[in-house]
Amino acid sequence: MVDEVRNLFIEVYKLDAECDQIATDEPLFGLSSRFGLDSMDTLRFIAVLHERYGLDIGSTNTDSFRTLDKICETLEADRKSANEGG
Questions:
Q1: What fold does the segment set 2-83 form as a domain?
Q2: Is 86 a residue whose pLDDT tops 70?
Q3: The Carrier domain covers which part of the protein (predicted)?
Q4: Are 64 and 71 in contact (CB under 8 A)?
Q5: What letter does residue 20 receive in the DSSP assignment?
Q6: pLDDT in tens, 4-29
Q7: How far is CA 20 from CA 23, 24, 46, 84, in A?
Q8: Which pLDDT band, with edges at 50, 70 and 90, does 64 fall under?
Q9: Domains of the chain, residue spans
Q10: Are 49 and 71 a contacting pair, CB within 8 Å?
C-alpha cells in the first residue's frame, strides 16, 4: 500500500520525484517538508484518499497525514474500523 499511496502523492502534486526518492517517514506537508505543501494541500490529499479508498474524513486528524507511514496507518485503521462496523 505504501508504494500505491506514494505514487498517488507524486501524481496529485505533479512532483518530479521517483517513488523510491520519498522515504516513508519523510514529512510530506508543512514547514519541514521539502515539497512546499501546506495545510490546504493536506486537505486536498485527504479528499483524494477519500475518493480513492473511501476514507472516513469526518473523524480524520490532519496530523495523521504527515508521512507516508502515518497515511498508511490511518488508511488501515479506517479499513479495519469499517470492516468491524464501527
A1: 1.10.1200
A2: no
A3: 1-79
A4: yes
A5: G
A6: 999 999 999 999 877 679 999 999 99
A7: 7, 9, 22, 34
A8: confident
A9: 2-83
A10: yes
